[in-house]
Design brief:
Thrombin, subunit H; 6-stranded antiparallel beta barrel; disordered N terminus
Length: 119
């Protein structure tokens, strides 16, 4: 087994507001990186792997200062670190794989990723 990269979509570092909703719960955090197929974010709450979620990601609009778009999509939690809920932990790193991204959201996300690759 090699340490080869398994991701098909290129990811970029990010510092974006994200709200993740699952059932009755909601977590507001910061996206640490994002790709066309998922994101890695910092959450104040533990979210168990395989949890289905809806998320809203706030993305700045190119050169327009202060203008933002919200990308809404569905996904599933594929990883959480640390792997267990612990009352002493105040932040969890959560990886989400997108399962449904509307076309308009995908275009906004792709535009943001391209802009980060160029800079």
């Amino acid at each position: 087994m090699t340490g080869a990269e398994r991701r098909k979509a290129q990811r970029v570092d990010a510092n974006l507001a994200v709200t993740v909703k699952s059932g009755p719960g909601e977590a507001q955090g910061r996206a640490l990186n994002v790709s066309a197929s998922g994101l890695y974010f910092e959450s104040p709450y533990f979210i168990a792997p395989l949890t289905k979620v809806h998320l809203d990601l706030v993305i700045p609009e190119g050169d327009a200062k202060g203008k933002e778009s919200t990308v809404g999509c569905d996904g599933v939690v594929v990883r959480v670190e640390p792997e267990r809920r612990d009352p002493a932990i105040s932040k969890y790193n959560v990886a989400i794989f997108f399962t449904l991204v509307p076309e308009s959201s995908q275009k906004t996300l792709d535009r943001y990723i391209r802009s980060r690759l160029i800079s």
